[in-house]
UniProtKB/TrEMBL annotation:
<dbReference type="Pfam" id="PF13599">
    <property type="entry name" value="Pentapeptide_4"/>
</dbReference>
<protein>
    <submittedName>
        <fullName>Pentapeptide repeat-containing protein</fullName>
    </submittedName>
</protein>
<dbReference type="InterPro" id="IPR051082">
    <property type="entry name" value="Pentapeptide-BTB/POZ_domain"/>
</dbReference>
<dbReference type="InterPro" id="IPR001646">
    <property type="entry name" value="5peptide_repeat"/>
</dbReference>
Length: 225
């Protein structure tokens, strides 16, 4: 049977490409708990150690925004576009992201455990020491990203793909996998949890690279004849 064709990798959009771009108003208020932001453009703003828990963002855009520290637990992001946005040390646990797109962004030391990401695309983003334990990722695409010291422990990965993405010391302990495709990854550095990736797709070359770890995992001792 012929192989099932892979879906085309989504191309990044510019701000002007957004269907709601003409409705965006420049942010001029305050960011606080339980806020409701719709059709707002956050441009060059710096948010330091704020409490934005439970805040809702609907059809918003974030350009060159810096978020340092702060708590944003259970915030909801729907149809949100971000570009060159930096999240450093922020608490985003149990947040919900739906139909969102992030380009050229940075997430460093971010807590995303228990978060729900659905139909989301990351383009050329860098993830450094990000906690995604017990998160749910459904139809999420990482395009040409760097994932370093990312922890997916106990997460559910459904329809997640990594075209051109480099994985370094990534943990997959106790993950649940459904249609996850790692075959397009540029590098597959798995620190732990290789046994939990049952059902994931990898390439032949990746299989060869992972062979020693797979042999050790299955108690096989490899010796030259």
């Amino acid at each position: 049977m012929p192989a099932t064709p892979r879906p085309a990798t989504p191309a990044p959009r510019d701000l002007a490409d957004l269907p709601y771009a003409h409705r965006l108003d420049v942010f001029a208020g305050e960011l606080g708990r339980e806020g409701d932001h719709e059709s707002v453009h956050f441009d060059g703003d710096d948010f330091v150690d704020l409490d934005g828990g439970g805040t809702t963002f609907l059809e918003c855009a974030l350009s060159s925004v810096a978020v340092e520290g702060g708590r944003y637990r259970r915030a909801r992001f729907t149809d949100v576009w971000t570009h060159q946005t930096r999240w450093v040390g922020a608490d985003l646990a149990e947040t919900q992201w739906t139909d969102c797109e992030s380009g050229a962004g940075l997430l460093a030391g971010v807590e995303l455990y228990g978060a729900r990401l659905r139909r989301m695309v990351f383009h050329r983003c860098k993830f450094d020491s990000v906690n995604l334990r017990a998160a749910e990722l459904r139809d999420v695409t990482f395009v040409d990203c760097l994932l370093r010291d990312v922890d997916f422990g106990g997460a559910r990965l459904k329809g997640v793909v990594f075209p051109g993405t480099t994985l370094e010391r990534v943990r997959f302990d106790n993950v649940t996998v459904d249609r996850a495709d790692l075959s397009g990854a540029a590098a597959l550095g798995i620190a732990s949890g290789l046994d939990a990736l049952r059902g994931a797709t990898i390439s032949v070359l990746q299989l060869m690279e992972l062979a020693p770890a797979l042999a050790e995992l299955n108690g096989l001792r490899v010796a030259d004849a």
